[in-house]
Every structure is written in structure tokens, then in C-alpha cells.
Amino acid sequence: MNKEITLQTRREFLRTSALGGALSWTVPAFLANTFSAMHAEAADSATQTATGRDSNILVILQMAGGNDGLNTVVPYSNDYYRRARPKIGLAEKSILRINDEIGLHESLKGFKELYDVGEMSLIQGVGYPNPNRSHFVSTDIWQTAADSDKIESSGWMGRYFDNTCFGCDPTIAVNIGRQMPRAFQAKHPVGVSLESPQSYRFMSREKGKSGEMTEESYRKLNEPDAEMVENSGGTIGTLQGSVQTGGSALDFLERTALDAQLSSDKIRTIANRVENQATYPTSQLGNSLKLVAKLIGGGLATRVFYVSQGGYDTHTNQTGTHERLLKELGDSVKAFVADLKAQGNLSRVLLMTFSEFGRRVAENASSGTDHGAAAPMFIVGSKVKAGLLGKYPSLAPSDLFQGDLKFNVDFRTVYAAVLENWLKTKSAPILGRQFVPLQLI
Amino acid sequence: MLKALPGNKWNFTTAAHLLNRAGFGGPPAEIEKLLSLGPEAAVAHFVEYDKIPDTTPDPEWAKPDPDRAKKFMEARQLGEEERRRRLREIQRADRQHMLELRGWWLERMANGPRPLQEKMVLFWHGHFATSVEKVREAYLMWRQNELFRRLATGNWSDMLIESAQDPAMLVWLDQAQSRKEHPNENFAREVLELFALGEGHYTEKDITEGARALTGWSYNRLEQKFINRPFLHDTGEKVIFGKRGNFDGEDFLEMIVAQPQAARFITTKLWNFFAGEMPSEEIVTALADVFRKSNNTFKPVLRAMFLSEAFYGPSIVRSQVKSPVQWLVGSVRMLERELPPPIVCFSLTRNLGQDLFAPPNVKGWDGGLSWITTNNLLARYNEAATLAQGDMSPVSGLLLANNPGINMAVERRLRNIPVHSVDVSRLFTQEERTNKELLIPALEKRLLQDKLKPKQEKVLRDFLDSKSELNINTILDAIRLVMSTPEYQLT
Question: Which CATH number fits domain A50-208+246-431: 3.40.630.30, 3.40.720.10, 3.30.565.40, 3.30.470.30?
Fold first, then answer.
């Protein structure tokens, strides 16, 4: 196993951010490199960890609603597929072939290009034992990585943060969206959830001078005490002690208020400064990945980004909807990869897709599909073991479980690989037991 | 026995603390009123709520719908497209009712005559943590809410048995599907682990045997009520907590309540909910003792808790992070404003991480510090502008993302909903409104029942100084600023 990397400590963050904070009252647009230049001691941590320039980054892409894996990675030459899907089965000639048996939906040209240049691994037949067909429950299972009969409130990424970086920079995890995904839920919550940099801020009601005065007052009301700043630069022992034991609720709120202010300033500055270097499709997912690329390019200290694309619950007249969703997916991810490549950051970014379940093998009576089980996952990046992983589940009726594909790769072996081989941390404490990491990196 | 709060410690701060915790807080006048009552009478005012008449009408749709099952069955006969259209219609009505239900409950919390009863309903909702995401029927959610209200401070066995037999729970934890051939263990497991004893106080065998005992308890969908179906019940012998017998569901739940751990488990959770920290061994023992001596009823426990000196300890007063619901209802009460329309309240609390009737899972909300993240905190600060100044941008701007289908419509409607700003002439005297040296302490007293730090006071003073006059807008800004502090997030 690789050397474990502990993430930035609370102490380092407070030191750097308190310095940044002190600056930000006068220079709201402070940057990592600005304050590292101001303080020699902080410089190391600022470049090593605060800016995260040398760290690997994970991007989780949720395909919400239950993606139809069979019409995504299509077993086009399989008779059972043809029989199960007389109406919505995809024409053989339209398929972007991967081999003689399977190929990608024609809308996934972006994915096919990534696959062909060796920047994508395609994991077939991913799922978990005793599959649940409720969106609600199955999403929780994927987000918490718990066994399907267990209830777990913390997310798998949340436990990663708890285990590796208690009290680290809140921007260690960034969700693009309104609500923090369950995956990020932690004992000691970190992470930022924003729909747009414009909304992740204190908003003054009035414009102009008057609004500026309100905002300035808000900043000062939420400014740390002189003592706190002093501690973070000097007598660190006391400070860390109080952090470790949790301190009072007010201490926690004050730190979070400071974190909020600093991360808001940072994110908005980066979003204004960094330009995208690829053309993204106009869509929600495209916009989300566009912002993620900016934040990576701007050197935000983030290790994990989370984006999602909804609409995969295709019970009725699936064909058109699914086609549009997959095109949006493939084109957005393709642009994202091109953007990162232009930035020179692709080698440290890994993008992983998941959906709460696949869909029933047989189409339903309204040219759609109902909730199913196993489905493919896509892993994108220049360091991935490109190609096919896992085995395509058998479509033979006798091999199905209640009409659904059986999984042959437990998604937690994928998580284990991501944790151990990409984020360089032990997976067992996070996943509850040792899963054999899938060889994907 | 817990040491009682001595009379000389009954003051504005302790009276405010009682109002904040046993209820949802309130304006200075209410605190003064409690103060004048003295601790015994003040606590009785909350605990003896059944003496106060409550005439709140039920939502008009809150009754069984005998046609509901028929509608589903009819829909099933239809072609695929028409079937889905009908189902969507039913879902739409349920969504609308859920919105009304949230508003109805929040209204009870904010303006109802029995604050402790509503606080306990909130406790039980978090405890039994049933979500409409799975139950999918507003009437059932309302029924469960009413059950929590009826038995809020009553007997523990009654509460366990009735909630187990209530339709929302029968659906939520799959008891409705349990058969003697295949007992569903979901409810039996959760009642032991999460509702009544806690891990380490039962065995896997107790779960499987308990599940057998519960078989037969089922749900009559046609009449939307509990039904005991003897032919589904496993009449064989079971072994639960080492005892043998032909136990049924009631026996199982009564046996749980009789376990020594049961009294400690539930009183610990109650203390933690109201005090905001885990109780000491001494407190648990004392509360469990009160609980047992009163035949497992909650009312005497609550009285003992609110009268104890420990409840007013320095680590407790003004040290609990407000839940989003407490933040909203408490703000509305302190600002003496009307509750915004249900759709706005729904959006406000949801943005802050608490969606009533949809807890994240059967464990309920984690609460405490977990309510606070950087973005939730910024959201609280921005939503303060909604409550203080009627600024709708924090609400409408945030509604588009995850579920465009629903939220687009919601957003359109939101734009046309007026939310008024606070009436400052109700909150502050003429003198306070014109003299900032009086206004600042008045703001602190009303919103924090405590002082800001001197440094923060100075910021507020500088802010007021920067304005040419103390007009309504300036005072509203000042209210919003005090609400935009770490201190305001605590109660």
C-alpha cells in the first residue's frame, strides 16, 4: 500500500486562514499565494496543502434516478437483450462498439473518445447484495456504503474526512448543488455546498454604499477574536487541544463562521479569475463541471467534488429522454477532461460516476423501464487502468433475480480502490471492513 | 433526586432559558411574565398544558379517504399512460397536503397555546423519524403527528404500542408486509436499537423472536387503519430476553419497556434533546427513577428536569445549536411577526437542513453541531433577511437546482408571495427607536437574551453611526445583523 497522506491539520488551516482572514478585511480578494508570501512559515502549508496543488482530486458524478445500464453499455449482439426490449432496444448499427458484444449508446461519443484514448475504465455489472429498489434507500446505500440491511447516517466520504482531516479546510469537499449529499455527512461536518459562487456568500439587501456597510459589519461581527488569531500563530498547543475536545458550541460556530467567510471569498475570487479552456454544453451538469474545473484550476484545497445530473428515472417513453441525458453526460465530461488537460491538472483528477440502481431488463408497457439492480460505472482520468473491468452480467432469464441483472462487482470494491489507490488512505476504517480494491488505477 | 433550582436563581436568564427550551422562545414580555410566576408555576404553565384549551382545527383533508384505494385500483385497470397520469394526480394532491401539513404544524409551534406539547411532538417525530418519502401519504403523516400530540407526555408503553400500530409506522418499517412465514424484522430491530433500548442491550435472537411476536399486526389499506390479522400471526413459542411464552406484539413491547435499560435510554434521550448535552450518570439515574415511580410516564420526568438546577447549568444555557425549526419558529416569535406562508417556511428550513416529515433516515436528525456547516450558516444569515426584512431572494434564488420539475413551479409561485418585514414599532419603544444607546441593549435582550461581546457591540454601534438617521430600514438591518452572528444560532 502507498504511503498514507494525512490531510491538512486544523492547526495549519487556522494559521493560514487566520492570516488570510486578517488580510481579507482589507483585501477581500485574498489568494493562497498572496498570504503565503506574507508569512514564511505558512508558505509550506499553503502550497502543500492549502492550495492542494500536489494532491489527487476525486470528482463524484451522481446520475440520479437510476440509469438504465443496459441502454448505456449495450449488449447489442445479445438475443436476450433483443427479446427483452422489442421497443426500446437500440439498433445494432447505432452502437459505438467496444467489442463484438457490447458498445456504448450513440449519444456517448464523448465517452467513446475517452475510452479509445485510454482515459476511461468501464466497470460492468456493479451493485451490492440484497439490492433495494427504492430510490431513497438505494441512494442511501451508495452514499453511506453500508450493507443494504443496515442504517448508517454518515456518508462514506464523510467518514473519509473524519478519519483523515478532522478540522480541515471546509473546502476540502465541495458539492455543486443545493443540498449536501449524504455521502459527505460526517461526525464533524466539513464541506461546502453551493449552486453558484454568487449565492455562496452573505448577501446584502441594498446595493452600493449602504450594502457595503452592512456587509462590512457582518464581517466584523463574525471576525475571530484577537486571541484566536494569536493562538493560531503562536501557542498552538492550547488551540489544538480545544479543537480536539470540540470546545464549546460557540467556539465551533465562530470557527465555522470564519471558515464560511474565507471559503466564500476564495471561491468567488477563483470563479472570477479562472477562465474555462473548453466549451461545455449548456446544461446543468455542464455548468457544474465548468465550475469544478475553475475551482481546480484556481487551486482550491478541495480533494472531493460532487456533482449530479438528475432525470434518469425513465419509466415512460424512455428513448428520447435517455438519449438527451447521455449526450449531456458524455459531452460535459469530455469538455471537463479537455479543460483539465489544458490546465495541466488532468493527471491528478479522477471522475467516478454512479447511479442508485440500473433498470429492469425487460422494458415495461409504456416504452420505459422500471427500477432494477446492477449497472455500469465509469471512471475517467489519465491514470486509470483503461478498458473493461468486471464482467457483463448474464441476461439469460434464469440468471436474473426478479427480472434484474445480478451484480458481480460490489461497488465498495470500487470505493476501496478510490480510497486506497487514489486518495491514499486505508479503506477498512471507512468502509467498515476490508474490501479487495478493484484494480482500476 | 435532582437538586431543585433555588428561588434566588430564578431570573430573566433562567426564565428565558425555560421558554427557549420547553417552548420555542418568545419576546421579552413573555419572559417577564414567566419570571413573575416563579419557577414552580412557570414550569407548570408548560407541563400542565392539558388545562389550556386547544381549539386548532384539523386540516380539512385530514380524514380517511375511502376512495383512495379505489382510485389506485381503478388506475391499475387503465392503460399505461392514463394510469401514470392518475397516479401523478394523486401524488400532486399529496404534495400539496404535505405542504399544508408542514405549515399547520409550524403554526401550532409558533402560535399555538401549548408550546411544550409541540416541542414534544417534534421530539417524537425525530425519535420515530418516519419519512413521507416512503409513507407517501399526507393523511398518514398527519395521523402520526396527532398521535405524538395526544400521547406527548404520556405513558411509554402506550406510545410504543400505538406508534407501532399506527399506519405511518406500519408502512415506514415494513410491518405491513410481515407474515408468519416471512417475519419482517425491520420494526423489531429498530424498536430495540433506536426507539427503546440501544445497541448492546438486546441480542439478534431478540430481534427475530420479537419480529415473530409482531406478526399479525398489519395495515388495512382500504380503511387506512391498523388491523390485527390472526391468520398472519405466529402462535408458536418465542424466547425474548430469556423468557419463554407465546408472546404477541403487545407482550414484546411491554417486555421492552420493562427492561431496566428502557428507563435510562429514553430519559437520556429526552435530557439530551432539551438540555443539548448528554446527561451525567447522576442525572440519568434520577430521571429514570422519576420515570419508573410514575409508571413510565413522561410528564413527571419533564417537570423534574425543568425544575432541576442542573438544567440551568452554565454549559447548558445558551449553548444549544438551534435546529432549523427552532431557528425559524423562535425567530418568528422573538420578532413578533407572522409565520411566512408554508411554501416559504418549507424552503427556509429545508435550506438549513431540516425538512419536517422527511428526516434523513430512521435515526432521525443528528442535531447539535451537525446542523452547522459553512453553507448552512451563510444560509441562516441570508434567511435572516427574509424574516427581518421580507427579502425573498435567499428563498427563491435557491429553489431551482435539484428537482427542476417541482421547483420551477414552486419558484413561480414564490415570486408572487409577499413576505412582510418586521414591524419595528411593535418591538421597540419610541425611545429605543431613536436612541442607539437604548436600541443596542434592546436588540440584545430581545434576540439573544444576553449581551454581545464588547467588540461586536462596537461594530453594531459603528454601523448605526454610519447612518444619517435611525430609520426603519436601519433598525431592520441591525436586527438582521444580530441574527447574522454565531451567538444568534444558539439558544
Answer: 3.40.720.10
